[in-house]
Write a structure and sequence with these properties.
Largest sheet: 7 strands, antiparallel
Shape: elongated
Number of strands: 12
Radius of gyration: 20 Å
Order of helices and strands: HHHHEHEEEEHHEHEEEEEHHEH
CATH class of the largest domain: Alpha Beta
Distance between the termini: 46 Å
Number of domains: 2
Helix content: 25-40%
Number of helices: 11
Structural class: alpha+beta
Strand content: 15-25%
Length: 259
């Protein structure tokens, strides 16, 4: 069984093993030859996965991964850009810049469809392509925002002991670490905890946004039971949702714990 360098964690979250057929790698090499460039390693790895397009479509908000046979437009790669996906209503497209390393940031084109890409007002969407794939899929996979299985808190940044507990309880997902952004992700196949620093330059005593999402009431309860002892989460966790009705389900979980 091949263990992926960049995208193993999202496959673990989904609870699937997907092969990397040699035929897909051959198509990627053909596209690189047509464009006269080498695609970033994390991009190559994801597109080499069997049925990557279907997985991305089904596990996101029906967003569209660039079709393998069309990966790389020579007119765009000549300008240093590679389109990787398009939002479901084609409002924006997501790109990486070829000169930004093996796991480059992902930008959206701000709904600007210029042939001259230097005229586009690019907006950074994700710090790495790995983070882009993980977050785009995981944020939709559990459907917690719609079902009410979603808790959020503004609390303290976890210390070393707390991070150790989180690593004991869950798998650790890809980490984002940049001067203006620090994010931890912890997950299992039933839910995810995301911890985002509000003030990453001063992590000692920093404020963090904690988001907890699960695929059922019992799993959200199990997640919350573990997190209850960390920081002051027992007081700061609140139910979040797209509607009052579904938010009431998260409130019921918190009431059970506080009882």
């Amino acid at each position: 069984m091949t263990r992926l360098k960049y995208h193993q964690q999202i496959l673990n979250l989904l609870g699937v093993h997907l092969d990397m057929p040699p035929s897909r790698a051959a198509i990627i090499e053909q596209r690189e030859l047509a464009c006269g460039v080498r695609f970033p390693a994390s991009v190559r790895e994801w597109f080499a996965i069997e049925a990557a397009e279907n997985v991305f479509y089904q596990e996101t908000n029906q967003d569209h991964l660039q079709g393998l046979a069309d990966l790389g437009n020579p007119k765009e790669t000549a300008q240093g850009y590679l389109k990787v996906a398009t939002e479901n209503q084609a409002v924006v497209a997501w790109y990486v810049r070829l000169a930004e390393g093996d796991d480059p940031p992902v930008y959206d084109n701000n709904d600007e469809w210029n042939e001259d890409l230097s005229k586009t007002n690019w907006r950074i969407h994700s710090k790495t392509f790995t983070n882009f794939i993980f977050d785009t899929i995981s944020s939709n996979h559990f459907q917690g925002w719609y079902s009410g299985m979603y808790l959020s808190a503004e609390d303290q940044w976890p210390g070393g002991d707390e991070l150790g507990l989180l690593r004991d309880w869950f798998q650790q997902g890809p980490m984002t670490e940049a001067p203006d952004c620090k994010i931890f992700r912890f997950f299992n196949t039933n839910g995810i905890v995301t911890i985002r620093a509000v003030t990453p330059e001063h992590l000692a005593g920093a404020t963090a946004i904690w988001n907890v999402e699960a695929d059922s009431p019992e799993e959200l309860l199990e997640f919350a039971k573990k997190l209850w002892r960390l920081g002051t989460l027992s007081r700061t966790l609140k139910a979040k949702s797209c509607s009052r009705e579904s938010r009431a389900k998260g409130d019921e979980i918190l009431q059970r714990l506080r009882a």
